[in-house]
Amino acid sequence: MPKNNGHRNKNLVVIQLSGGNDYLNTLVPYQDGLYYDFRPSMGLKGEDVIPIDNKCAFNSNMGPFKTLFDQDKMAVMMGIGYPEPNRSHFRSMDIWHTAEPFTSSPEGWLGKANSLIDPDGKNPVTTVNFGRGLPRALASQGVSVASVGALESYGLYTGLSGASNRDAMLDTVSRIYQPMADGGFPSRRILETGRGALDGADLLREAPSSYKSNVEYPEDNPIAQSLKGIAQVMSAELGTRIYYAAHGSFDTHTNELVNHALLWDQLSKAVECFWDDVQQQGKGDETVIWMFSEFGRRIADNGTGTDHGSGGVAFMIGDSVKGGLYGDYPKLDLSEQLEGDVHFNTDFRQVYSTLLEDVLGIESEPVLKQKFNTLDLVKI
Amino acid sequence: MTTATSARTDVSLIAHLLRRAGFGATRDQIDAYTAKGYEQTVEELLHPKREEAEDQDLMDRYFIASVEARSVGHADPQWAWRLATSQKPLEEKIALFWHGLLAVGGIKLDHGLEMLTEIDLFRRVGLGSFQDILVEISRNPGMMYWLDNQNSHKDAPNENYGRELLELFSMGIDDLGGGAYTEDDVKTAARAFTGWASRATPPPFFLGPFPMEFNFDSSDHDDGEKTFLGETGNFNGEDIIEIIAKQRATARFIAFRLYLFFVADEPNEPEIELLADVFQETNGDIRSLLRSIFNSDHFKSKAVRFRKVKSPAELVFGTARLTDRFDIPDMESSSLANQALFMGQHLLNPPSVEGWHEGEEWVDSGALIERINFASGEVGRTDAPGIQRMIELVGNSNDPLEPAEFVEACLDALGSIDLGNRSKSVLIDHASQIGSFASDNPGSAERTVEMFQLIVSTPDYQYC
Asked: What domains, with CATH codes, occur in chain A?
């Protein structure tokens, strides 16, 4: 049963910041002396920050984020996390993917969302992932998810050298993957999966042909290219509700000032282009971007970088998003630290609950296994 | 039966055995095994020589970052190399079986060195007695850490290991969560394993972690009287395992898991009962159970051939082995671990203590596209010696070949595999578009490779 608290259903674009994005050098507490004490070689100040208010500033590589923030289209979730933080990349990412901090589950929150949105699996492109392999967030039994490297070359045999007769081969493979009425061999399930995969590939490969835009995404920027792919699929109106892309690696143990800046420069430009494109398509109020990372990093630097920490910052962007700063900026005093990290103050599952109900328009409880109050982040 | 038909029957049976007891084999390897005979081949597979691995030094020299592997990502190349090249296929296959059953994942134990130590443990004892395997894995520091036995103390036992030992590792539960043991048995098992832990290890140094060590702390062990599955005594962990290994539920559970892994995705109750009997008659000797499986009429029957969905590891390494192109441990072999990951199986990182969900669940739409693209890419490597040999085998047949004969020759070259009638007839139609095949016709090699590629793209090829 649809549940949208009076909201119009929207489509969700998830951008995963892989590797653990450094919260303190993303949303900088630029007026806090403790920050500079803990970050003697890596504290950002002066030209390296873009102040938001008298406490927080964006990293100077996030200019386009500041613009979206000023337009009231960006919610910044400060101090987001979960109880008993885990500092392993794998495990922490897993927790964000499955929304299960205390048990290990093979099913992802968006995979489960997909099966609520499309219970009969009618649309093979309800969820489209840009990247190789399936993030666990998207995994769920019986759910088809297309995982795309590049749209133009998506599908079978596209990387095959010496395949002189690709069309004839595709034609033959397509004839083989026809589900039979009887329960013979190969099983109906595998044939149907194949059919869905081939149909999905056909739909997605065609998506760029109907796409028109004057936005120029930077070529040498992988996340920009992924977001361009998402814009192309959006413009093809294939009924896709969930898009997924990843950017990284934010695992900046060393040389953080250079690498972190580069990653945010790429991401900011990519999001700027994408949002222009979405607006041009007239989809600004039916699209919500959600950006998260598996954890933040230690408060104190290690000389040239930072190590794995807990508590982080996340972003929600869209015309329908109620912009502003949410949560509290965690205190950096030694007495307020959690084993050298900031404490979280907003459980990410509350945001998931909001995204499920107010953005995707589905019940959140079957996905999150318990009731989390939604946050007032989305305009009716 | 004519001699030729009988020879072909032998070949396809050996091919079936090698797909299940290993990761398939090239047509020439199948011939070599066929010459030895079926039962002799079974014995050879069951008795891999335990010797110092001579390729370890080679791996250490080529995979520098993999020496004292820091993370599972650093450890992957080592196992990938073995899976791609080992000449003791069952040793690797049984390691994969136990790795999926007694699952420890890099998700929590992000310690590549320890993960590789565990895989080696399974190579070493995986074909021996089940009781020994359980004792070894209970003394495995990675397992103790993974299931929180670190936090299990004399005055405050942590039940995680006790529970999974019974539920997932030995006796199992039914669909409703019921088992042949009680909650009290779980608590007692937990008490018996107090004091079993991994010794505190220094944090990883810059280039890698320190080896983990098992430690039994008798001062933190509950030595009191315990009643477990109806027996009473001052049981320690070994005693608990000895009692577990005697249970019919254990015999059935391990028989069931071996059946699903080696025989078919659909369980066959009478066959599983027979295997459970063998388990009890031999005190849980895994080698005896496998011998019983491989030599059974049921295993040899057509009813179970191609009735198991290939895991990503089986698909990736089974196909890559056909190319016979791995001379040195380099990116070519280590990237195979990534291929399995793209298809949903991160080798040293099973998703949970339950291991992987096997069978048709492996094949989702994204994974199927990865499978087809990978497999067709591999058999399209015309510069690889194994593929050149396969082209030669098709060409050496008595040409010209009619389309149906051509398809059969290609299936034979791919390791004496077969397809269902439906897929086969579509491929024969495809071949008929050009007509009969003659190896001296221009483009015959390309045509052969194209047929290889179509064969490995079929739904039928997803089964082994």
From this structure: 11-152+217-368 (3.40.720.10)
